[in-house]
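Hey, I'm writing a tutorial for new members on how sequence and structure tokens pair up, and I'd like a real worked example in the thread rather than a made-up one. If someone can provide the structure for the chain below, I'll link this post from the tutorial.
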Amino acid sequence: MTLYASLPLLFVATGLVLLSAVTYLARLFRRHRRAISALLELAQSNLDPLQLPAAGWPALASGGIKRMEFSGNWFGQPVQNIFGAPPEECAPNTFSFSVISDGDIHLDFCCYSHNSRGESRLLAEHLSGVFHLLLETAVHSRMESLSAALAEQVRLMLYLQHDLRNLAQWVEWLAADFDAAQDDHELLAIALRLRTSSPHAATRAQRILDVICKPPDSVPAVEHPVRLNEVIRQAAEHAGIAVTLHDDRPDQEVSVWLHRELLNRTLDNLFTHAAPLLRSQPDMTISVNIAHQTDKVAVSIEMPCLAETVRLPPERLFEPFASGHPGGLGLGLYLARKTLAEAGGELLAEVREQHICFLLTLPAAL
């Protein structure tokens, strides 16, 4: 009789437990549904992929993710960010994913949930999967639009267009210098500078003629020792500017091992980036520092920065068409990085107040 008398209480207790569990799960799933809806709304916002982690973090946090961190490269520039609580306050088990596209984008994400097991972790992991798909879609959409734009530029013979522009600017600046000369002494100085830089310009003109008359299938990968100081000075003269060169081994001739024309094209794009500003303000200078390593040569080029570049987020410096400064094609820095990578080097950049510093890592000639 005692057992039968306690059955109603047992049923009531079981019902209360089930009601509590159902209420908890219903609240959990409603929260999960709201978080997914918030993420799906971001898909219609046309945000840049790098803006999505910050924009999506409130939804992720409300859906059971306590911490998210990511790092990687965006068009050659390192990027990283952290959202949420310190790792020691999170569940030890993590779930991660990566977003990779065409060698230009590589982002690694790591997420921490509030709980290490149970429904809460399962839903948090599912939410991170939704965010992963959202980010992948945004990156692929961006790369598709860039591919379409770059295909159009390739149709116009992309590299040839830049070579023509650089050569035309050299002629324009040279004519302006001759026109501004006040006496024979200034004319003689310009003529001496012309004698030094004209072989450099003639080489570029011949390259343009070769491409127009018989377009090559690809740039011939002929590597040989290249005198670095000489190439830097010639590129600066071709841009109509002067550089201050510092070498940590001034008593030795510096040589790097790569394709000279590819290095020339890289330096042309870098110096041409700031040449209009430097020619209008002669008190501004470009500082070049050369440091020798075991099998590499590091070249640091610091120059005044255009206003459009200052306003650009650092991670987007090499992104095609991102700068949008007047008179430019929006591809100079992108092509500089791609060209140097083809030559076996590496190019990074950092904006420091009103200056931009380019760091070139080149293979040393043994």
